[in-house]
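Each letter names a residue; structure tokens follow underneath. Both lines appear below:
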Amino acid sequence: MSAADASPAGQQAPITHPAPQNARSLGTWEAHLSAPLAGRKIISAFEVLAGMTGFVDLFQRWGADRPLFIADGIGAGPLPNPSDVDLVVLEPPAVDSVTDQVRARLNPEGRLTPQVTEAIEHYDPDGTALWWLSPIPSNSRLLGRHVWGGRPPHQIALEDKLIIDDLLADIDAPRAASVNAPATYEDLVAATEQLLTSAGASRAVWAGDSRDGINGGADYVRWIETSAQARAAADFFAEHCDEVRISTFLDGVPCSIHGIVLPDGVVVLRPVELAVLRDASQGRFVYAGMGTSWDPPPQDTLAMRRLARAFGLNLQRRHDYQGG
């Protein structure tokens, strides 16, 4: 799980269940990590049904009981065999962007309709089932049941773009010039002009805070080159944010690098190229996917890996962080 704890921190589910009957066919780590699911009811929820099909074989492999699937619509692709699962299919939430979709997953409580609650209580009357959710939401209990796959609430707060400079400063990491400003046209323009003048730059990027929840997919990012773009962006941010991070525009190949923070260190992975298209007329970035067919130069890769490791260790030390 890329963004989730290996176990629900602070409220770890009991691991006294018997090992799956096929435990000998599992690798050591898979057997260890899947042990809490053995002999247990599983509620897998809030994904499109086609995206949950693969869970059927996994849960059977791990020795779990017949699961309950609560699906947000059908999706496209092979579907689970109805004989293998209990099933509730909901009308998917209306979303217009990646940000809307992520925020819907951050609020699973909002999907606990009377229909869902009734199905869960019928499936699991003794309240011992385990929720299997995406890495995005909190791992706080739902309907009194443990959540597997979420993350502690304090880790969600680290998603706010406006705190990145403080986190980088903790480890003396190099970073582009930036400043935070209130989300009004006058404040944003004044702060941008001052920043560009002091940095000797001509273009700026604005990124909104997480006042209304996590944002991603470049939905809350604007590329500012003209007064018209600044006006349109300021109107957007005034509606959705309290503050905006202003930084100089950095040209190049966008890359991300991932790591997994473990109790005894950080596993750092290879850089990933981000396919980000530019809509110059609108001052927008369009996130189009990622890939590993291109690698940065070796010295850049090494620098990114060192930064990711230092960053992860700092998150662990200062914020009791675990996961990816």
Notes: The two ends are 7 Å apart (CA to CA). Residues 23-150 form one domain. The chain has two domains: 23-150, 158-319.
